């Protein structure tokens, strides 16, 4: 791996001159600077984060602030992380994972220590304590999620309202007049993340427009809670029942409970769930899913961040982008009548 000494030899300058070109601490002639830059490119020399920060006040590191909550399905979170990291590399940036334990103080810390150029925040709550800080940081901040008040913030997320509306429309088209939504587990509901309310609002809007009934029933990770919700749904339904389960953690439990009631998805009951395409196809009965397009949301979040950095943009900024969702049909739903 080449060093600054190698760059100095290739450029025919002192090693200190290379440091001055990188740090900008002393004036360097244009001719000498170009010689050093040519040597850096020729040797594919990569200065460490500290040197890069001095050179352009940049570290080329993006902080990704993630809540690690044991009850949450971390597989879905890691879908975002992997795409964010790979997209960042395409823009010559690295990712620094920052746990959410410190809350707003953690944002001040990573920005104050100048270890990243910008922050991407995930799992945004309605009244998120980090947001007053995020609005006033001197680095770009991009939110994956939408708070109750998005003013002065850059936000991107899947269009959960569209997802809820399309799910109800899809099942109503298949002939269902009563549609039961099994809510997210309490660990999610208690955090008051905005996507839950947007999804539920979408289901209610579609129900009113189509003249069907939507039941909102408790979710959870235990069989007893899901069994109780399923039985309430069946008792309230005339004709073939239909379920929407946006929480990935309950898919297997729901399938087993329906089976124990003698109900086969796609034959006696319709089920729209949430799962990656691979897992959906691997189900005993391939699962019709709400595609919330986490990869596209992740890519767009990084691209927005890099655009802000490229333009030397410092807060506050304001924009809101919703990525359209789609229903991917498989075998777990009845076909339109």
TrEMBL record:
> What positions does the domain HTH lacI-type occupy?
2-56
Q: What range does the record give for the signal peptide?
A: none
Keyword Protein biosynthesis attached: no
Indicate the segments annotated as coiled coil, or none if absent: none
The reply to whether Transcription regulation figures as a keyword in the UniProt entry is yes
> What molecular functions are annotated in GO for this chain?
DNA-binding transcription factor activity; transcription cis-regulatory region binding
InterPro entries attached here? HTH_LacI, LacI/GalR-like_sensor, Lambda_DNA-bd_dom_sf, Peripla_BP_I
Q: Which UniProt keywords apply?
A: DNA-binding, Transcription, Transcription regulation
Report the protein name in the record.
LacI family transcriptional regulator
The taxonomy runs: Bacteria, Bacillati, Actinomycetota, Actinomycetes, Micrococcales
